[in-house]
Design brief:
The structure holds 3 protein chains of 3 kinds. Chain A has helices at residues 23-37, 43-55, 58-70, 72-80, 82-88, 122-125, 130-133, 135-143, 145-151, 188-194, 197-201; strands at residues 98-103, 108-113, 161-166, 171-176. Chain A is an alpha/beta fold. In chain A, helix 3 (58-70) crosses helix 4 (72-80), helix 3 packs across helix 10 (188-194) and helix 8 (135-143) crosses helix 9 (145-151). The termini of chain A are far apart. Chain B is mainly beta. The radius of gyration of chain B is 12 Å and the shape is globular. Chain B has one helix at residues 43-46; strands at 8-11, 30-40, 56-63, 67-72, 76-78. Chain C is built from 5 helices and no strands. Classes of the chains: A alpha/beta, B mainly beta, C mainly alpha. Chains A and C meet through helix 1, helix 2, helix 7 and helix 8 of A and helix 1, helix 2, helix 4 and helix 5 of C. Strand 3 (161-166) of chain A pairs parallel with strand 4 (67-72) of chain B.
Chain lengths: 213, 79, 89
């Protein structure tokens, strides 16, 4: 698009929008306006959805894990039906029909990936980190998982059964990391603080007690 | 076609134009059924605005390199 | 292009994370709200993303792909007229 300027400067004419917004931001706002104007969506529903998104965090999943660590019966229920178990704690497990908790043990370590897109238990962990959605993570985790884990600083013993779960359908997977040693004296709330988001994806172990204060 | 946990299966080596959730790297691979998740609407047709009915059975399948994936019944064959 | 499992990649995992920008939250919320309204389902969203030309897919950021898909699918369904979003920019 060419036009005449009276003033002297070099610039590109970016789409008109809020100062400094990238083009995608302008598109998103334009799309919202159109959909609201057409009556397809109500603005308050969009706002409510944003509120829901920003209120999701890994502390939700961490509560499930901490309860499972202290209560073997709860753990059994969590492993049988994570959605129901989450509901016991007043947690919304999200729209997926089924949520499955995968238990890490001394002999078995799970890590979750979505090679086809970025399926992730958002309701329990908040939005996925950029690396989870990256092309590198999606390609490499199924073919060289130990190498990927090593980049996260996690080295597993050779005889550990490493299970890479590719979330190809609408089942959402949540890893229950192992309870760290030396945590016998901690209560559930303190234990929940050790359960990191990365440990519930499976690229890390839960934090050791000395690391948090 | 129903499968049971422990059953040996093979992922169909089949081209599919259009949306489907069977990754290429698993097509043609042999595995063992780990779990039956239940039946769900078919994403291959839902992706084009259809209802996704009839529902299709979904299985968690274990492959010999430690990869597990959720595969729909119509992508599995007895092995 | 979306089917990434096992693709050769020597790329290290970039562990840098960015907090979602407002427009990204908006994009996510638009999809969720469209879903709840029965206008666009997650399988359509994925299909729309998978239809992106490969170079665009690789170059686009995560939520740029979502916006591309939403616009494509809603135009296909006649909810949006072709070029309607462009006209609004």
């Amino acid at each position: 698009m060419t036009h005449d300027h009276d003033h002297d400067h070099d610039h590109d004419h970016d789409p008109i929008g809020h100062d400094g917004d990238p083009p995608a931001a302008v598109r998103a706002h334009a799309l919202e306006e159109l959909l609201v104007e057409k009556g397809v969506l109500a603005r308050e529903d969009i706002r409510r959805r944003i509120d829901w998104l920003v209120s999701r965090s890994p502390s939700n999943g961490a509560r499930l894990v901490a309860r499972a660590w202290v209560d073997p019966d709860f753990k059994a229920r969590l492993l049988a039906d994570a959605r129901e178990a989450a509901a016991e704690l007043g947690l919304d497990a999200g729209p997926s029909p089924i949520v499955v908790a995968l238990e890490n043990t001394e002999d078995v370590h799970h890590v979750v990936v979505c090679t086809l897109c970025s399926c992730y238990p958002k309701a329990l962990l908040g939005p996925p980190p950029d690396w989870y959605k990256s092309l590198a993570y999606r390609s490499r985790t199924v073919s060289e998982p130990r190498s990927v884990l090593a980049e996260f600083g996690l080295e597993l013993d050779e005889d550990v059964d490493l299970r890479v779960v590719d979330s190809t359908a609408d089942i959402r997977y949540l890893v229950i990391p192992r309870r760290p040693p030396g945590t016998e004296e901690l209560d559930e709330a303190e234990l929940a603080k050790l359960v990191t988001r990365d440990s519930m994806i499976g690229v890390a172990e839960a934090a050791a007690p000395a690391m948090t204060s | 076609m129903s499968f049971v946990p422990g059953q040996k299966v093979r992922v169909a080596r089949r081209e599919h134009r259009g949306h489907h959730r069977t990754p290429s790297y698993l097509k043609g691979r042999e595995g063992v059924v780990e779990r039956y998740h239940g039946s769900f609407t078919n994403p291959e047709t839902r992706a084009y605005g259809e209802t996704g009915l009839p529902e299709r059975e979904l299985y968690l399948v274990r492959f010999d390199d430690g990869v597990y994936a959720d595969i729909y019944e119509h992508w599995l064959e007895e092995a | 292009m979306h089917d990434r499992g096992g693709l050769p990649s020597a790329e290290p995992i970039d562990r840098h994370e960015h907090e979602l920008a407002d427009w990204e939250l908006l994009a996510d919320a638009l999809v969720g709200t469209l879903g709840a309204a029965g206008v666009l389902n997650v399988d359509e969203l994925r299909r729309g993303i998978e239809g992106m030309p490969p170079e665009e897919y690789e170059r686009a950021s995560y939520y740029e792909r979502w916006l591309y898909s939403v616009e494509t699918i809603l135009t296909e369904k006649g909810v949006l007229a072709a070029g309607e979003v462009d006209a609004r920019l």
